[in-house]
Amino acid sequence: MSPEEKALLERTYRLTEENNDMLRSLRRAQRFGTAFRVLYWTLIIVTSFGAYYFVQPYLKAASGVYGTATDSVAQFRELLSDFSNTTK
Fold it and tell me: Looking at residue 86, what DSSP letter applies?
């Protein structure tokens, strides 16, 4: 093997090692990115369910008020209907 070939082979080996280090670094960064993305979405989903858990009593109360108001409006319309029928 000539000295030029040996130098070229050593240079190729160093570049291969450098590329391998960079690829490992990229892969590690990708893993961390994926882990943080999963953690981010898990936190958002858990927070949403937690917020619903704490807001649920207020939603039920508002739903009850809405149901009562709907019933009252229906009774009022029935009363108006009865009144208009008796006046004719």
Answer: H
- Give the integer Cα–Cα distance in Å for 59 and 49: 14
- The amino acid at residue 32 is F
CA 13 – CA 10 distance, rounded (Å): 5
- How many residues in total does the chain contain? 88
The whole-model pTM stands at 0.56
CA distance 88 to 84: 7
Identify the CA nearest to 36 among candidates 20, 28, 48: 28
pLDDT at 69: 84
